[in-house]
Amino acid sequence: MHTPVLKKLYQEQVVPELKKKLGVTNPHQVPALTKVVINSSYRADTDKNLQAEILKEIGKIAGQKPVVTHARKSVSNFKVRQGMPLGVMVTLRGAAMYEFLARLIYIALPMIRDFRGVSNRFDGKGNYSLGIADHTIFPETQGDGSQRQNIGLDITIVTTAKTDDEGRELLRLLGMPFRKASARAAVPANN
Predict the structure, then answer these.
(1) pLDDT digit string (tens) for 117-171?
(2) Which alpha helices (H) appear in 69-177, and where do they start and end?
(3) Do the Cβ atoms of 54 and 148 come closer than 8 Å?
(4) What angle do CA 46, 48, 53 make, to 5 degrees?
(5) Would the pTM count as exceeding 0.90?
(6) Which of 126, 135, 127 is CA-nearest to residue 156?
(7) Which pairs with CB-CB distance under 8 Å and at least 24 residues apart come from 43-51?
């Protein structure tokens, strides 16, 4: 059975490092990845062809068929009626999650022009969300002759970390390229 590279890295290097840093002996106390949720939404008046294109592209990126999300209630100001399709989402767990994260961290993020790292902001519970403005940074979407409309997507990485610092350290050890704090912010002004 094939073990994903990122899972092997987690088991062999990240767990011992986190055990040492957190001062725990039980490997089950070490923060772990639970799931990755990929979400892309579109306007209510988007045509059916574009909706199908978004569904296909997110499916290629995730390696798994996404589900269509629908409006829960009507909002007349946005021309949304209850039950209208408003986006697609897919939840990845297990090997598919590790494979996707490896592609995101090591291939897709470095393809962003002028990339300086991702934000350090977590949700307060050890989970991390990341917005991608252009889906074509993923190599799976290249060279198939489809409509070249940029599709934005949100990626949420859910962990078992109890604090943001534990979650940040977990993702940093897995290779997530967090933005460095700027030197100007660290040096106080001489006034």
Answers:
(1) 888 889 888 899 999 888 888 888 775 555 557 888 999 999 999 999 999 999 9
(2) 94-103, 164-174
(3) no
(4) 95
(5) no
(6) 127
(7) 44/71, 44/78, 44/79, 44/80, 44/81, 44/84, 44/86, 45/79, 49/147, 50/147, 50/149, 51/85
35 contacts: CB under 8 Å, gap ≥ 6: 91, 92, 93, 97, 158
Which amino acid, one-letter code, is at 37? V
Tens of pLDDT, residue by residue over 12-44, are 999 999 999 988 888 888 999 999 999 988 877
Measure the CA angle with vertex 107, ends 119 and 20; round to 5°.
Answer: 60
* Three-class SS state of 128: strand
In terms of Cα–Cα distance, which of 184, 64, 177 is closest to 118? 177
10 Å Cβ neighbour count for 61?
26
Bridge partners of residue 37, in order along the sequence: 91, 156
Residue 93, pLDDT > 90, answer: yes
Task: Show the tokens assigned to 149.
Answer: 């409309």
Q: Counting every residue, how long is the chain?
A: 191
